[in-house]
Structure formats: C-alpha cells, structure tokens
Amino acid sequence: MPGLVFATHDVDVGRHEVVKRFRQWARGEHQREWRALTILAAYAPGLAPTPLGCDLESAPPHIRMSRVPGEPLAARAITAASLEAAAAAVGRLHAAVPAEALARVPQQPWLAAGAIGQLQASAALVRRPDDADPAVQAAFDAATRWLNLASEPDPAGFTPVFGQGDGNVANYLWDGHQVRLVDFEDSGRSDRAFELAVIAEHLSVWYEAKVSADTFLHLSSLLGRFEPTPAEARRLLFFRRAFAVFWLLKLLGSDDDRLSALREQALRLLSLLDRSEV
What is the C-alpha separation between 73 and 171, in angstroms, rounded? Predict the structure, then answer.
C-alpha cells in the first residue's frame, strides 16, 4: 500500500536471477527470508524462488534467488482461477514442512511478540480522530475498548504451520496456471488461523482486490481439507479482529489521504467486533 508501509529492500531483477538487497534488517528480515527459501526448496520445490546464494553479514545483506514466472496478482483483476490457485499455494505452504522440522523453525515474529501488546503500543501513538467520519470515531473507540478487554486467544486452537506472515496480493505471482509465493521476511513457525487472518484482512485483498474473506476462507478450507474446530474458529475471529484494528491504526497514522479506505476499514472492524464468537 503506497504511503502506508516502507520498503525494507531493493530488488534487482535479471533474466533468470533476482537479487534482494535489504534496506532494513535489524528485525532479522534477511535471516527469515533465507531460511524460508532453503526450507521451501527442500520441502515444497517450485512454490517459491530457489535460493542461489547470500551474504547475510554484509551491509546491506543480500540474497540471490531464481526468478520465478508470473505477474503479481495486484497487477490484474483477480479471477476465480487465480484465487483458487492462490488458496492452493497457501495450503501447500502450510502443509509443506514436516512437524519435526517445523518445530526447529523460529516462531513468526508478530505472533511471537503477542498481538494485543503490539496493537496497544501502536494505538498509544495514534490520537483519537475527533474530526473524522463518525464511523471512524466509533471504530477507534471500539478498537480501544477491545484492546483493553481482549486477551490472547485460547492456545487449544493453535494449528502449527509454516507461514509467510504477509497477505499482500503482490506477493502472489500468477502465470495463468499456478501461483508462486515471494517475500518471506515475516515468515516462520506460525498458526493456521493467524496466517489465514493475515490474508483475509489485508487491505490489498478485501479493499483493493475485492476478495471477500468468506470466499477465500471457504476455498482454503476446501483445498486444505480443513474444517476448523470451535477453538480454531475463535482464534481465526480473534486474529481477523486484530488485523482489522492493525489496518485502522495504520490508516489513521498515515499521511496518505485515503478517506474512502479509512471509512471502509472502520465499518469492517465494527462488523467484526459485532460478530458473536463460536
């Protein structure tokens, strides 16, 4: 989203090879990216770029990887075929790494730090939008109340997966037949509910690409042969709410004039907070 996130890297694209040079790497983005590429090369070849080499100690660190075919889904209208392929790619990613190998992978950073604490810290930096649309004000107040009352979700619904940790549709490359995945800076051992919520609530998915969460989640369940338990469904709703709060705060804290997106995000959050838990 222009104006909402900063670039963590520069990319040099060659005919057969891509070099990713990191501008920001204090959070270990370069290490997570390299780890993900090597893991997926072993357990899900063809799903992501093949790792060709790296220098993780240089300043800036850089990674060499193969160039995979396809165009970002953000660059074209998403069709039923490309959406199904994207859901299939996500399902393959989540199932790729065997349990014993997954247990050795560091946890996804946002999940490891705890959603509530991070969102509370972000909310403290954003002033109440007293001059905004009434729906935006109501959503901000509702988000504040939720953050003050909510606790981390029931761990009984945790389903371990290898996750990308990023739902931006620009990271899904579609060649007309298959979707491949790029950008693993926030990847790690994760939770299926968390990963599905990251995608379903990403602004590029529901607002820009107009993909409904129900459609994506239904496809993911069918293709992954995954029927959520009540505990998993509660975790999914929790993380959808958390990411809806995240995007509301992101839009409020941005100087990018996206009033339509802000109002729609506010209404979406209010709807999610109004849903009953399973």
Answer: 8
What letter does residue 227 receive in the DSSP assignment?
-
Distance CA 182, CA 102 (A): 19
Q: Are 4 and 86 in contact (CB under 8 A)?
A: no
Superfamily of domain 70-274: Aminoglycoside phosphotransferase (APH), C-terminal lobe (3.90.1200.10)
Handedness of CA 10, 252, 205, 246 (dihedral sign): positive
Domain-by-domain residue ranges, the chain? Answer: 70-274
Contact between 265 and 247 (Cβ < 8 Å)? yes
Please give the model's pTM, rounded to 2 decimal places. 0.91
Backbone angles phi, psi at 238, to 5 degrees: -55, -50
Per-residue burial over 54-72, b if 16 or more Cβ lie within 10 Å, else e, is beeeeeebbbbbeebebee
DSSP state string for 69-122: P-EEGGGSPPPHHHHHHHHHHHHHHHHHS-HHHHTTSPBPHHHHH-HHHHHHHH
The residue with tokens 């209404």 is: 267
Residue type, 210: K
Beta strands in the chain (DSSP E): 9-13, 17-22, 51-55, 62-66, 71-72, 160-163, 172-174, 179-181, 188-191
Q: In whole angstroms, what is the distance from residue 95 CA to residue 220 CA? A: 12
Amino acid of residue 70: G
Q: Which pLDDT tens digit goes with each residue over 124-138?
A: 999 999 988 999 999
pLDDT tens-digit profile of 171-198? 999 999 999 999 999 999 999 999 999 9
* β pairing state of 9-13 and 51-55: unpaired
Which residue carries 């080499």 as its tokens? 53
3-state secondary structure of 38: helix
